[in-house]
Every structure is written in C-alpha cells, then in structure tokens.
Amino acid sequence: MTAAERLFLEKGLEQTTIEEITTGAGVAKGTFYLHFSSKADVLQALRARFLQGVLDGIVAAVEGLRYEDWRGKLAAWSTACATGYLDAAGLHHLAFVAAPPATREGLSRNILIDHLNELLAAGAGENAWSVSDPRFTAVFLFNALHGVVNQPGIGETPAARAELLRGLEGHFLRGLGLPSGID
Fold first, then answer.
1. Contacts of 59 (CB under 8 A, 6+ apart)
2. In this structure, are residues 43 and 13 in contact, taking their beta carbons and an 8 Å threshold?
3. Measuring CA to CA, which of 4, 26, 78, 105 is 20 to 30 A from 71?
4. What is the pLDDT of residue 31?
5. CA torsion 166→169→171→177, rounded to 10°?
6. Is pLDDT at 183 greater than 60 in this prediction?
7. What are the two backbone dihedrals, phi and then psi, of residue 12, each rounded to the nearest 5 degrees?
8. What is the four-CA torsion angle of 56, 78, 9, 37, rounded to 10 degrees?
C-alpha cells in the first residue's frame, strides 16, 4: 500500500497503473490480486489506514492523561485529530476528495466519530459536562473540525498551525460549556 500511496500522490489515481504499483512494491501482479481486486480497493484500504492512523494518534494523546482530566482529554482529542489530518493532508485529499468520494456516511459514522462519541458519553457519565446526545455532538464537533482543517492552505506554517490548534481546542471546550482559557 505504501507504493500505491506514493504513486497515487505523485501521479494521481487514474494515471497510476497496477503494474507500477506492483513494481514499486516489489511484488508480482498475482500478489496484488490476492489482496485487492482493483485500484479502488487499494484506495479504500488507504482510507481505512488514514483513519486508523489519526485514531492511533488520538488514542495515544487521550490515554496519556489522568482518568479524571476530562477537559484535557477533550482538548487532546481535538488537537490530535487536527494534527493527524494536517500531517497527512495529501493522503486525505487523495483518499477522500480527489478520488471518487467516500459515502456520506463517512461524515456521520467513522472510527473517529465513534471514539469521540465514547469520550463524550464517558465524560457526561462522570459529570464532566452535560451532553444529552453524545452521538449528535460527536458528529457536530467532528464535522466542524474536519471542515476547518480541510481548507486549502490552513495551518501551513508552525505559527499558523499552533494558532489553528489552539482555536480548535477552544471551540471544542466551549462547545461543551467548559472554559477554554483561550479568548
């Protein structure tokens, strides 16, 4: 998949051949077809890998905090999610924007929204915040973050990225009625 990702990013999905992918990966075409039936299957696998990579970063950031630090967990979730998107913006654009788009369900049901839903429900259960519908709130917050980080040219310099992450964190916290410490 790494060879396919590199080629897709360099040449585009349509211009990349399966032969180029197999040559780049150092495998036979038969090996390719054991795992994928088409380039579209590779693209779907790249989408899943992108989401899993972002989730892995989120989990590491959130699990590194004390159990009772709900404010910190929510702030870490927003920062890690945005960082994951920004760090792999090319892959995100390739997998979700430039290629045939994912289904609408991707913006209402995915592993990132599921994780945020669980965090919001757990925090509500511990009275860290009041959320009557954690799933709705997770979809809302995720799509707000996604819309911001998906803008062309956003967070390109270290200073702009730091400002963007602070702003996202503040909006996540204020969205749940928590003080953000950011004005």
1. 115
2. yes
3. 105
4. 93
5. -130
6. no
7. 100, 155
8. 50
At residue 71, what are phi and psi to the nearest 5 degrees? -60, -45
CA atoms within 13 A on the CB side of 32: 23
Tokens describing residue 77? 């979730």
Amino acid letter, residue 20: E
**Residue 141 structure tokens:** 């917050």
Q: What is the DSSP string of 110-171?
A: SHHHHHHHHHHHHHHHTTSS--S-HHHHHHHHHHHHHHHHTSTTTT-SHHHHHHHHHHHHHH
At 121, list the tokens. 């429900």
> CA–CA separation, 53 vs 47, rounded Å?
10
Contact status, residue 116 vs residue 105, Cβ threshold 8 Å: no
Q: Which residue has tokens 């960082």?
A: 83
Calculate the CA 159 to chain-centre distance. 21
Task: Please answer whether residues 143 and 134 qualify as being in contact, where contact means their C-beta atoms are separated by less than 8 angstroms.
Answer: no
Q: How confident is the model at residue 61 (pLDDT cuts 50, 70, 90)?
A: very high
Give the separation between CA 183 and CA 138, rounded to whole angstroms: 23
**CA gap 155, 2 in Å, rounded:** 25
Q: How many CB atoms lie within 10 A of CB 66?
A: 8
